[in-house]
Amino acid sequence: MKKHRCLHFSIKRLVLLNLFLALNSLCAQQVTIPISSEGFTILLQTDEDNLLKTVYFGESLLNESEYSSVSGMFHFKDNNIGIGNAAYTPSGTWNLSEPAIKVLHSDGNTSLDLRYISHETKFLENNIALTSVVLQDPVYPFQVTLFYKVFRKENLIEQWTEIEHNEKKNVTLQKFSSANLYFTDNDFYLTTYHNQWAKEMQPNESKLTRGIRTVDSKMGARAMLLQSPNFILSIGKKASEKEGKVILGQLAWSGNFKLEFEVDSYDNLRFIAGINPYASQYSLPKNTIFKTPSLIYAISNNGTGEASRNLHKWARKYRVLDGEGERLTLLNNWEATYFDFDEDKITALFKDAKNLGVDLFLLDDGWFGNKYPRNGDNAGLGDWQENVKKLPHGLGYLVKEAKKEGVKFGIWIEPEMVNPKSELYEKHLDWVIRQAERPEVYFRNQLVLDLANPEVQDFVFGIVDTLFTENPELAFIKWDCNSVIYNAHSTYLEREDLPQSHLYIEYVRGLYKVLERVREKYPKVPIMLCSGGGGRGDYEILKYFTEFWPSDDTDPLERVFMQWDYSYFFPSIVTDNHVTNWGKQSIKYKVDVASMGKLGFDIVASELKTNDLLFCKQAIRNYHSFKKVIWHGELFRLMNPYQNDLAALMYVTEDKSKAIVFNYLVNNRVSFHTNIEPVRLDGLDRNKKYRVKEINLYPGSTTRLASEQLYSGDFLMKIGINPSLSLRKTSAVLEVTEVKE
Ligand code: DGJ
After folding, report:
1. Which atom of ligand 1 is nearest to the CA of 552?
2. Residue 400 domain-assigned (yes or no)
3. What secondary structure does DSSP assign to 659-671, as a single string?
4. 277 and 143 housed in the same domain
5. Which domain holds residue 137?
6. I need a surface site. Which of 495, 570, 627, 637 has the fewest CB within 10 A?
């Protein structure tokens, strides 16, 4: 939290402010603030009482001068609900609907009113405009600034709020939303996602009806265990891939969140999103800024396809660490060995990594702990020294041995957590989140460290720093986080005389502080975000990570659906997919599915059948040849597995000269026929000529595609190409290459 730069209230200023507000409303000049991307505008406007309202959210008007006439076309009648469109709804005064902000002033008063004071728009660069709007309470020295950062070409908005005051004592923030939007269209359809371990991103679609639909988390560290902060909002009708007005969004916060979608009595939609205020009242000192996390959303009139392509572009260019860079293919030992390994087993796997042709070997959980060896998930977590029995020559030796095989070396850590059976727990019980007087409650036999405590932040940073200092050639980290927060209590906050209700928020801020330090010192090294599968993965934490682990469920059939759903929100360069022993499908199907992201393996390659190994090696060579198309290209979802017997999607380079098309059979009841109709491609240049070649063929199998034939982009997009899937060939990867005549 930053100390405020310029807000210095005094009684005199307060009197002047009130005078100003009074005068202002006497001769109130209506202020109209269009906040515009290339295609869309959020229109804010003051009314005769200087209240700021959202009067329009939709396609931009051709003539800016007409924005001032918009509100006159809406005749909201009822005074009470007529102000449901406040741009940031306070509570305790004129508003009786769900507020965006709720406070307890230092004198115990619970009322808040917010009136427009000023606004400004700055261009941060050609494509990015930042509008800020200041609102103040006429009675209390309390101020809210709304921020709208517009990425114009991507039709994407990042929206957050800063709250501050100059009251005598602390003000308690009881609700502190990031954004409060209002839509005057009718008929809203919402898709949200339910999670469970190994069942992440299960879509949940419904038409919104009157009342509030809440999507939230109270899980603490592994915030997305049960629900995700991603959503698709279709406006007017349910958007398809190419049609419909749609918003793809996310609250970018790695802790408890709350999204509230309320259809009001006009059938308009109020949408309020922010940190979950549950058990999180925040005591804010004077002249200190409380900055909320960002709500990030891409808007399109042309369906989910365009919206997600824009979201991907934005994520790669502006958000994810090294989003336009490279990634490392890898072999992981988790499912190959679990905790049961030693130096010899691991060094033998380096040979597998080399033989397969991947870039890196990743040593997973189980390498540390001596007094309490990490031979299972019930001990050792927190004691980050190599286990001398398993790894007598230490990590340095492994890094060197891997290098001898020509592969890089990476390592797993879970630095925010502790097993009660650990030296860390014995030495630093005060670092552990727990209620001293109550029985401990465990999630995967572990507890969470108190990242609100700066000493714990130093400890967590130190784990990473020591690993890199002692092993400068360490090339990759997998950062796991398996536990939720039970018994939320911080000894540190108690010691500092700070409210316990700060814990959920300060935990996340503490985590970001550590990650900031890690990235200051190690700006580029790839780090994978993992949380017992996909329990974390939002665009705030992804500023520090190059990629994330979507789920422990690597059954490829399940993954087709899951990766499909993740693909609405994340570019494939960010999602790590591994080939494992989960699922009974062929190795080809597994590799083809894992290739639509960052490819990895978690198998004992030396145990593969000869042809399976041959196939994998060739498929990895192929992947290296086309990976840039997947990582940096545009995604077109062609056939939805929820509606068809197969899933098909493709990635196309920006210049439309190259594309990779993935086709996966998702229905094993179709043994009586092969797929009859072609899959229509997308994103190509209709005037270009292309060669379509089936790659990733299993040794000995053939293709029905004649690779010498050329097709126009026009043909491929209007008629399509038949991947000829059947139960004998359940997946096909097609390489589409421009041929210049
Ligand atoms: C949970 C992760 O999702 C797995 O990939 C693996 O790293 C285990 N933790 C290790 O304990």
Report:
1. 3
2. yes
3. EEEEEEE--TT-T
4. yes
5. 5-319
6. 495
